[in-house]
């Protein structure tokens, strides 16, 4: 039977636990270094690194050297408390959510972690961040009662959809193994299941809440279980038509401004 190691967080330090010692209520190592409470920890997929986020406004990267873990770098740049951290599936990117309402993307460049992008858009504290198993999608939960879906585009990330429905702060988000379902836990005492097959596809994405009632109704009808077997093609045609309508509207507005109407 393979040995397993667990990570738990406590005030100011991180404890590494092994099942061998759990019965004796003993840890195999305690990691110290943060100057305030540790809010979040995460393992890299290969199990060789641990990242931690703290109220001391830093993210730390820990690596196993021999039989013990050591802090190899402290990532500085956060303006406020770090609430949540997550590893990209290849271990080369760390994502952190903060009290300053932002999400930072940290990339490993030649052994050094560098902040390569700061994502903005939330109107509240970012309580939870998670990356889908396939590495294509990032979800963030916030005290603004929303969940944002971010998609990897080239070397950066862009927000493709904002999910609303919770009546309280979103404290936690997680993806299903197939990346098509998202679950969220909220301060409103509820757990919501979100399903959208288009999250795992390219290239059509939309924020349903930015559409008018008729457009929303049409999309909901197409997404019902009794809809056609492949609603993606229909939705692609629908959005292409919608974009043409918007372009025509913009042209009419420009002509009015220029006095041509």
Please tell me about this protein's structure.
The chain is of the alpha+beta class and 261 residues long. It has helices at residues 19-22, 213-222, 231-257; strands spanning 6-10, 13-17, 29-32, 38-43, 49-54, 58-65, 68-76, 82-87, 93-98, 103-109, 112-119, 126-131, 137-142, 147-153, 156-163, 170-175, 181-186, 191-195. Strand 6 (58-65) and strand 7 form a beta hairpin. The radius of gyration is 22 Å and the shape is globular. The termini are far apart.
Largest sheet: 4 strands, antiparallel
Mean pLDDT: 77
Number of strands: 18
Give the helix level as a range of percent.
10-25%
Q: What do we call the CATH topology of the largest domain? A: Methylamine Dehydrogenase, Chain H
Question: What are the salient characteristics of this protein?
Answer:
261 residues, alpha+beta, four-stranded antiparallel sheet, 3 helices, 44% strand
Walk me through the topology.
Layout: E1 6-10, E2 13-17, H1 19-22, E3 29-32, E4 38-43, E5 49-54, E6 58-65, E7 68-76, E8 82-87, E9 93-98, E10 103-109, E11 112-119, E12 126-131, E13 137-142, E14 147-153, E15 156-163, E16 170-175, E17 181-186, E18 191-195, H2 213-222, H3 231-257
Antiparallel strand pairs: 1-2, 2-3, 4-5, 5-6, 6-7, 8-9, 9-10, 10-11, 12-13, 13-14, 14-15, 16-17, 17-18
